[in-house]
Specification:
One of its GO terms (molecular function) is ATPase binding. The chain is an alpha+beta fold. It contains 22 helices and 14 strands. The mean pLDDT is 90.
Amino acid sequence: MAISKMEKVTIISPKCEEEKILRIMQDLQNIEMVDSVTELNNQYQTKQFDVINLDENRQKEDELNQLQSRIQKALNYLSVHISKAPELLNETQTFSEFEKELDFETIQDLLNQVNNWQQKEKAITDEIDQIRVEIENLRQWQYLTINPNETKESKYLRSVLVDFSLTVKETLLEKVEEFSTLFEVVYESQSRQYAFIVFLEKDEELMKELVSTYGLNVMDYAYDQAPKEVFESLETRLVTLKKEKEEIIKQVSTQHQMVNPLKMAEESVLAEIDRIHVKEMLAEYKDLTVIRGWIESDRAESFEKNVRAQLTSNLPVLMTFDETTQTEDVPTALKNNKLVKPFESLTEMYSLPKYGELDPTPLLTPFYMVFFGMMVADVGYGLLMLVGTLLLSKKKTLRRGVRNFISLFKILSVPVMIWGLIYGSFFGLSLPFHVLSPTEDMNSILILSVCFGMIQLLVGLLINGIQLVKKKDYLKSVSESFAWQGILIGAVLLVLGNIVLKNEGLKNAGLILFVISSVLIILVPMITNKSKGKGLAQGVYSFYGITGYIGDLVSYTRLMALGISGGSIAGAFNMLVGFMPPVAKFTVGIALIIVLHALNIFLSLLSAYVHGARLQYVEYFGKFFQGGGRKFSPFKPKEKHIDFKVDK
């Protein structure tokens, strides 16, 4: 339960084996790549190494990006029309096994088929949109049975479709009657009138004046049939197009079997793009390729065996593993057992430890379990968590991150049930037995919360002291750790001896320990500082930090507050439903109590998760943990749609 020891692997191989080795590395997922060109050129001072086939790689990358874009568009299109697409099973295959099942000729056929549907649907959609626009333009003219364009062939007549405001209707009609041979009102709305006007060719200028004077809108009619016929034809065509579109959508909606092959193809393409990116980190020298990276020490031997076993040629490949140096930026890989591993996400949310630093995950796990359980504290809620997480964990389609999160809450369900038994709470109902009553023993629970806080602070200070002793910084370990432990323990003994047990010996022991520790906090900076005055000031200022410890202890009272509030709310919900009449209680009441308890479970778990993490990050980690490490990121497939099994 610590940080994995790292080694730097260097592989020197013939160029012809480069792609094969990269595929093996990507499949094994245990090497974090290092920029070999930069590192080797810095190491040898003069530039002797170049990037491999840069132009060729970029051209290949462009082609793959185009293919990936086509696949992505196809998947997006299918996802719109397929209500519930199938999901890939996670961690059932290695990447190499996965790629063997791919047939890119079939994938191309699928892409062409999807593209065909997409183009047809787009063409139909565009035509539907166009027809709808035309229908809207003709809506007011749909009752006109005469084709306005027939007058174009006449030597003496002209016609026009106009609409105008009703405010100019009377005046306009008087003017039009002076020269028009036909004025037919086609449609009239609340504010405008739509009319078909026929007039003599010689009066065309008069008509233009009316258009300008009265603000008439002249419609440019571009059809060869009467508006009524065109309108009916367009509506018929619209119905036909909608049916055609529905047929395409119906056909696409049944193509569930196309989704997973396309997802698999995208994974393969993304993996190849990543290999091209990695090639830019490789160095070449004559006919050789140099690959460098970080690997966990306990996986180095199996990695070498796997690589050599999968290389089919007899060409020599040199592989070396070197210890880390203090000047190198070594990544951090956490290594914990099955119980502690789910809690690594809490550490990562704060900060990873630097390589060589202590992994705080095993040290926060027991405290987080106790605190989380204390803040939820209900047997029923814990049982629901356990059953729910057990059922969810059986799903093979869950991604790795979700599975780890579920594992975390599966573990946390146990302390929730234990504290539920201690508080005697089952879905807010009081059990016939309990150790502490949330309603009667509030002071005891408050003291217990502070005691847990005191224990965690002492553990944090002890860890810090041990780390400083290992660094042989003995005086600093006294002033920043052991002396503060003495103050806290002394304060506890003072309270016990003076108030609780009324024991003078205990009281005096606590007072002596408190005073000696306080003096050490002030004295040590004076010893380590060249200027005694500055050292004294620094020591006094450090001692002022005792107020921070008081604040830290007060912060732990949330363990009591959240635990009691969650149980009280659950009890209030039960009481609310209990007051209902029998008929309502066993009908609406059942649904209501389920909804209310579901809400309370969600809020209780959320509060416990957030506040439990906050106590670790601020009160606990602040005593010994610095962080700032860089996560170990092995070269692997993108895993956009699926998590691959890793053979270790």
